[in-house]
Amino acid sequence: MASSLTCTGVIWALLSFLCAGASCVGFFMPYWLLGSQLDKPVSFGTFRRCSYPVRDESLQTTVMVEQCGRYASFQAIPSPEWRICTVVTGLGCGLLLLVALTAIMGCCVSELISRTVGRVAGGIQFLGGKVKGFL
């Protein structure tokens, strides 16, 4: 299997793939903020939540749903700031994953990544990291 990457490029590709994977897992996990409500542990992320309160109209009280789930719609995300965070973080993860997968393909296919393509990919990766780190 021929590669168009140097030894440094292969290390960059593998580290990029690991970092992009960790970013995507972190994006999908609902454990960004931890706390308690109604004496139950609760947590939520940008579009998932665990143990959340629901109003029970038949009992006229608030009960805790002790399970994890995503919000029913984009508008159900609690605030405009969290909606923006969801979009921007997802965009950053997508850019990081795109560059990482391209770099991994460069490890397997010769002449796929030239010096210019590597620099552009590094710039896109930097932009994805800055977008994700902005929040």
UniProtKB/TrEMBL annotation:
<feature type="signal peptide">
    <location>
        <begin position="1"/>
        <end position="24"/>
    </location>
</feature>
<dbReference type="InterPro" id="IPR019372">
    <property type="entry name" value="LHFPL"/>
</dbReference>
<keyword id="KW-0812">Transmembrane</keyword>
<dbReference type="GO" id="GO:0016020">
    <property type="term" value="C:membrane"/>
</dbReference>
<keyword id="KW-1133">Transmembrane helix</keyword>
<feature type="transmembrane region" description="Helical">
    <location>
        <begin position="87"/>
        <end position="109"/>
    </location>
</feature>
<keyword id="KW-0472">Membrane</keyword>
<keyword id="KW-0732">Signal</keyword>
<dbReference type="Pfam" id="PF10242">
    <property type="entry name" value="L_HMGIC_fpl"/>
</dbReference>
<protein>
    <recommendedName>
        <fullName>LHPL6 protein</fullName>
    </recommendedName>
</protein>
